[in-house]
Amino acid sequence: MNEPMTTHFGFRDVAESDKARLVGEVFTSVARNYDIMNDLMSFGVHRLWKRHFVATSGVREGDHVLDLAGGTGDIAALLLPRVGASGRIVIADINGDMLRVGRERLTDRGLLRGLDYSQVDAEALPFPDQSFDCVTMAFGLRNVTHKEQALAEIHRVLKVGGRALVLEFSAVREPLLKPLYDFHSFSILPRIGRLIAGDEASYRYLAESIRKHPDQATLKAMMEAAGLARVDVRNLSAGIVAIHRGYRI
User: Of 24, 190, 217, 220, which has the fewest beta carbons less than 10 angstroms from its beta carbon?
Assistant: First the structure.
């Protein structure tokens, strides 16, 4: 009999068929506390990263944007003024709880027009070829089992000339910062998760998943292999996060 294919779930090896369920359980657990936990974990800097991500996105009035792993709607809220009344944003996430939280919060802010919501698997997007001017994915790619398949799907649904933008944790480029970052990730974050969200294990997974994610050069090569062109990388906060940008030509 063939051995089941395995992949990583944090620092654990699990069957590929189990990863989506395990990741789903993590985000179902953290959905309600996701925003406050992000503030505590990053000292609020995640908001600056996201603003810079959108400010440099090149999204213009009338654009149709797919926001993958859209979760609680942070990126979509920032993009809305840019697409204007004639544009649309599809907030897409594999986790229904994250989508519900996001929809509630955006609705409470009066953000209704120009937004659609879709529960999707990034590896099999239910959209026609060349549907979007831009696809964004912030802090979601590292949780996908087959990242190369998700990138191929992003390329497929982009219009010619369209942009793929990935904001993700990456490899720290400053050696002196790395020990402090590791201490924060593995000693502080799980404790914050236990105290604030009552869930240490999920936040330990999130820290581990960052270390298992491809570094800047590897992800750049993966995007190019998926068919994206002119891929460039911009490090933020010494490489704690990076923006990868590629185009469909």
Answer: 217
Cβ–Cβ < 8 Å for 243, 56: yes
Task: Tell me the CATH number for domain 19-247.
Answer: 3.40.50.150
List the beta strands (DSSP E) in the chain. Answer: 6-9, 12-15, 64-68, 88-93, 115-119, 132-138, 158-169, 229-236, 241-247
* R_g of the chain, CA atoms, integer Å: 17
Phi/psi zone of residue 229: left (φ > 0), alpha (ψ -120 to 50 degrees), beta?
beta
Q: Each residue of 75-119: pLDDT tens digit?
A: 999 999 999 999 999 999 999 999 999 999 999 999 999 999 999
Q: Give the contacts of 240 (CB within 8 A, at least 6 positions apart).
A: 169, 170, 172, 177, 181
The pTM score is 0.90
Strand, helix or coil for residue 47? helix
Each domain of the chain, given as residue ranges in start order, spans: 19-247
Alpha-carbon distance of 162 to 211, in angstroms, equals: 30
Residues 6+ apart with CB under 8 A from 82: 54, 57, 59, 60, 61, 63
